[in-house]
Amino acid sequence: MATVCLAAAFPRAIDRYEDAGLRQAVVDATARRSSVQVSASPPTLGSTQGERESVLRPASLRKQYERILNVLERPLVADPGQSTYGARTTKSLEAAEKWLPRPSGLPAQMTLAAHHGLAEHARLRAGRLPRAEGRVTASAPAVEAAVTTETAGRLRIKVGSVIHVPAVGRAPLAVRVTGIVAPRDREGAYWATQPILRTPAIMRLPTQGAEPSTYWVGALLLAPEAAPVLLGTPGAPARYWQLAPSPAALTASDLPRLASSVAALESGPGLLKVREFTDPEADASTELDDVLTSYAALRSGIRPLVAVAAFGTATVAVVVLLMAGGLTADRRRPELALLRARGASLRGLTARLFAETAVVAVPAGVLGLAGALLAVPYGRLSYAVGTAAAVALLACAMLPARAWVTHRAVRVHGAREDLASVRPSRRRTVAELTLLVLASAAVFALRRRGTSGESAGTAGPGEPANLDSSGDQLVSLAPVLIGVIAALVLVRLYPLPLRWLARPAGRLRGAVGHLSLARAGRTSVSTVLPLLALLTALTTAAFGGSVLTGVSDARDRAALLTLGADARIEAMGALPRALPDRIRSAPGVRDVTPLSIGYEAKPGAGFETVPLVGVEPEGYARLAQRTRLGAFPAGELKVEGASRASGSGASAGPGSTPSTEPGAAGPADTDGSGGSPLPALASPSVADRFGTRPFPVRLEDLSEITVRITVVRDLTPALSGTDFLVVDRAGLGATPARPTALMLTGDHLDGGALRKAAGTTADVQLRSEERARYVDSPLQSGAERVYTVAVAAGSGYAVLALLLALMRAAPERAALLARLRTMGLTRGQGRRLLVLEALPQALLAAVGGALTGWAAVRLLAPGVDLTAVALATPGGAPPPGTAALHTDPVSLLLPALAVLLVATGIAAGQAWWTGRRGSVRELRAGDSR
After folding, report:
1. What is the secondary structure of 531-566 as a DSSP string?
2. Which secondary structure element, helix H or strand E, spans residue 125, and what is its range?
3. DSSP element (H, E) containing 844
4. Do the Cβ atoms of 477 and 398 come closer than 8 Å?
């Protein structure tokens, strides 16, 4: 039932987080990018003025809007609540009113738009909505309009204001403002697709001077019935239909069809149909296809990693089902052999076993499917039912298949079938060699091409991107195949150490050690499946745990690289003098390191800028050592004889008072001590340019210092770029030495308290908040949850395999203890006997699982890139670094230790319970062979 539940829930969980990721990608892309905008100019050649006016009237636009909606091909569905249509001027019109704001003396300009649905998407704040008196034509002298609250506030427009815009061949058109409205959803597609209708903008004219000329551009919202008046202006009016995709209709499984629908409307058959009833020159534009390609690229980086977890858990589940069927067949072997000896046909026997198993498996499968549907209520039902039926059928077929193989020939007594006597057959050898070849090919392919091979969205010029890439399935099986090969090797080697240990154990006093090793060596060949299940499960758990740890470590590292400390407080100018002391008293703060950062320092005689950081060497060296970002000895940056922040009191000149501020040294000490160059820590690129010779650096306040590079580091906490210089701020002047940033270290920092202490002049960034930014999509969080469940399921199946193996041998062991106690075996010896008997297999599985997991991670790490899961960034910005797979000791050792503890615990518990219950019942039951 649990296996059916996991199998049925998996495809629905994939559907849920992939669909959520696609919808969030479309929503986060802004309506301006995701909406499809169809536009067409009014007809010109061969059309009368009346015909040109009629196409701008609401009835005509509405009819065309409905026909455009019918052209859309599913799964591209328009959201009726955010889609709209209308007419507007494509060129802004100059407003003559001098009371409108003029930043550079240029008059404001206006865009006229007849936007349909204003009453449903805006709240009236003042006045009333605009109306059209009578039948408006292109020659109408005046119309009414509304403006948004943002337009009214920034352009000083009030109800009753009249704005005049140019008209063609007549007096200017008077537009009287009758109302001020506030958008109900300002970020919705209705307003955000054309943001100028909602928010005025300052435009800049290209000029040669230092101060560009600017002017305001706003929008006047006319009544839809007044759209024909746009034809009487020089604003080049155009019709438009903006179609916002409905997020609820978007599914990741339909991504190729969705991209095809967008392409058809943008430049394919859909656009040709639109042109038939709108205008031959109609155009459709959108960036939704770019959004889909970006999403597909992210998904293609995540899907193969999820496939690795899925294949691993599925393989372990299948092995455990095989093992359960095999153990049941072994337990019922005398019964089935007797039935065959009495004349039962092989077909009738297997049909009977199938029916017996189905009586239990089918109801359990139905319950498991119901549990999966309740646990994951979203997703495609057909996939869940299909996987549940496949698992139920596999469970029903395991016992009959094993019985078919074992009882093809009628036997009353079988030969010994233990690991010490049975030799592998040629067929088994061929099968194992085939698996070895497949595993080698999978590892080679993964190391060479990575988990996903050719990612979606990376097609060459002129080639369509593959939006449905799911990676190579053989590559996804690589960790599992490594575990399977290791298990088969260990099964072949398992008898050897037992034989080596049995002879010296026979010379010891007492029979417990020798007897336990002898019984462990005579374990049935059915041990192959438990060992295979254990090793595969441990390998899967170790690999999955290493993936999760690698993702977490990569996010921690990326956040640290971005901020350089646990928290960072930075301002555009100098920070208040009392701020460091206030920050030190904030909860959780352990240390505060002040920095003086100048981003526009110019080294040498050129115009190229390099960020320069002034630091206190001792504190900054501690910070670099703690964060492991370019650690260095503090003495390499110290300025000998210069004033220190702790108050050495350098002289600032005649008549001046000693100062305890860094940089308070006199002019003679500007370049360090007595004019000597300041020691500097530099990045490799800066060190390559300037070498170790002294060179001048012009600071932002136009002062100049001389520095000499003494330390080269790839990274430094203060800056995340590849160019930087770090010097002792005691050698800087008073102005450039003022702290502009504070680097904080501590545990459980309180962001609210830090922001309250810093005030509004400084920006506060926390490492924990920066880390959270890298989980930008439900694709990432969903993949992490699937991996977590896969690791837990793999560990659970390992324990289940061990329990099944031990429970299968429990009656035989109880009878053995009963017989041995009649010969004088004590309870303590009985516990040691069972523990030592179970220990070889459990120890072999634990050690082999840990080593196999370590080997799998080391072998596959070069081909596994965790960046897509760990470090997705908003807006498609490049992540700060990469995320690589590395071994996690906890994931390697914890499942292995759990197997050892469970095995020894069950053996000791069975011995204790058998000794407490007595041996009469087992002796009466007879031999369990």
Report:
1. HHHHHHHHHHHHHHHHHHHHHHHHHHHHHHHHHSSS
2. strand 122-127
3. helix 827-860
4. no
CA distances from 511 to 505, 818, 907 (A): 9, 16, 18
Q: What's the confidence (pLDDT) of residue 915?
A: 65
Residues 490, 536: Cα–Cα separation, whole Å? 12
Burial class (CB in 10 A: 0-12, 13-18, 19+), 348: exposed
Handedness of CA 262, 268, 270, 276 (dihedral sign): positive
User: Listing from the earlier edge strand, what are the strands of the sheet with 612-615?
Assistant: 602-603, 695-698, 704-712, 678-682, 725-728, 612-615, 589-598, 741-746, 567-570, 763-766
pLDDT tens-digit readout, 424-462? 677 878 887 888 888 888 888 877 776 655 443 444 433
Task: Give me the pLDDT at residue 522, please.
Answer: 60
Instruction: Identify residue 722 by its one-letter amino acid code.
Output: T
Q: Which tokens is 185 given?
A: 């959803």
Strand partners of residue 39: 240, 283
**pLDDT for 516:** 66
Rounded CA separation 129/41 (Å): 27
| Cis check: omega of the bond before 889, within 30 degrees of 0 | no
Q: Which residues contact 275 (CB under 8 A, 6 or more apart)?
A: 281, 282
What does the pLDDT read at residue 646?
Answer: 33
Q: For the chain, how far is it from start to end, CA to CA, in angstroms? A: 31
Please answer whether residues 92 and 235 qualify as being in contact, where contact means their C-beta atoms are separated by less than 8 angstroms.
yes
- Structural contact between residues 521 and 289, judged by C-beta atoms closer than 8 angstroms: no
Q: Which portions of the chain are predicted below pLDDT 70?
A: 45-46, 207-211, 411-424, 450-472, 495-529, 640-675, 776, 824-825, 872-881, 914-929
Closest residue by Cα to residue 111 from 55, 54, 175, 184: 175
Are 564 and 718 in contact by the 8 Å Cβ rule? The answer is yes
Locus of tokens 């738009």? 113
Q: Are 709 and 691 in contact (CB under 8 A)?
A: yes
- Contact residues for 835 (Cβ-Cβ < 8 A; gap 6+): 904, 907, 908, 911
